[in-house]
Design goal:
The complex is a heterodimer of chains A (112) and B (112). Chain A contains no helices and 11 strands. With 112 residues, chain A is mainly β. Chain B starts with a strand and ends with a strand. Classes of the chains: A mainly beta (112), B mainly beta (112). The interface between A and B is medium-sized, with 22 and 17 residues.
Chain lengths: 112, 112
Amino acid sequence: NAGVTQTPKFQVLKTGQSMTLQCAQDMNHNSMYWYRQDPGMGLRLIYYSASEGTTDKGEVPNGYNVSRLNKREFSLRLESAAPSQTSVYFCASREDRVGEQFFGPGTRLTVL
Amino acid sequence: GNSVTQMEGPVTLSEEAFLTINCTYTATGYPSLFWYVQYPGEGLQLLLKATKADDKGSNKGFEATYRKETTSFHLEKGSVQVSDSAVYFCALIGGSNYKLTFGKGTLLTVNP
């Protein structure tokens, strides 16, 4: 099992450009999550999907959109990138309500 | 709402020293509690967990006991190694939304 995979690993964008971060899990988990990690802020939830076909906002959803393409894949889109979106982005998945949450290796995004 | 407060870092120790990282929480009901670890350049991985009061989670020499009376879940290790250098996150799942709430993380550096 590959677990949770994310692409790309690194990305540099100019202000106003758009991009999609891809995430896939091969553990047949129902719920998937997108977080951003910034120094001194811990992990903040951007969006989550409790099951295929549903998505909900987390703490910091502004400037982002998500798509739960199928049970395996959950993508995060930045329509018009801003320097404040410079961060490390982590995707995660979890099988049940209180089980272990598995994280991907992260995408380091810089917006100039 | 739910919240997690953990001791500010960074924490610097010599090899074989005793480690304590404090974590306290606020939550309704009976949350499940977790410690995650993030090694440099990687995603988070579950270190240990406890799902009810007085449970002790343990893994790789680390331990934490779920103390409902003090709403705490302090992480301890009797003898740290250089390889334990990482960021440690306390987290909980509680309430009806089943989302993980993280503390801000504590950077541990162990010197030989």
